[in-house]
Amino acid sequence: MSLAGQSSNGGSRILVLAGGLVGAAGVALSAAAAHLGGAFTGTAASFLLMHAPVFLAIGLIGGNRCLRLASLVLLVGLLLFSGDLLARDFLGSRLFPMSAPMGGTLLIAGWLVIAVSALWRPRS
Fold first, then answer.
1. Of 18, 31, 70, 85, which has the fewest Cβ atoms less than 10 A away?
2. ∠ CA 34-36-41, rounded to 5°
3. pLDDT of the chain along its 124 residues, tens only?
4. What is the pTM of this model?
5. Exposure of 18 by Cβ count < 10 A (0-12 exposed, 13-18 middle, 19+ buried)?
6. What distance in Å separates the CA atoms of residue 90 and residue 85, rounded to the nearest whole number?
């Protein structure tokens, strides 16, 4: 079975899966923040929800190599940044030193790679 009329492309399917999981986690964490409190949890939920559509879009359009690289950088950055914020609220400590700043830097880099992908020309 193909995804959205595409040939079976594992990378695209994984990005759609990531988009769905990130979106679901964002909604669940938004509810947790509303009911249990936790400013860090609310921030993590917002970041998850704002990035979920990116994974869906890139997965569904089957973006070029540059876009797929950008999505990988965004996913790692999102896991580090949100993971650190959630660890602070739920575990009372950081994920590891500098995990949130590293994650945030990767998020910025991922968005910049998306911008560069607009200039990317496929090899002929």
1. 31
2. 70
3. 343 444 446 678 899 999 999 999 999 999 999 998 888 999 999 999 999 999 999 899 877 888 989 999 999 999 999 999 999 999 999 999 999 999 999 999 999 999 998 887 766 6
4. 0.84
5. buried
6. 9
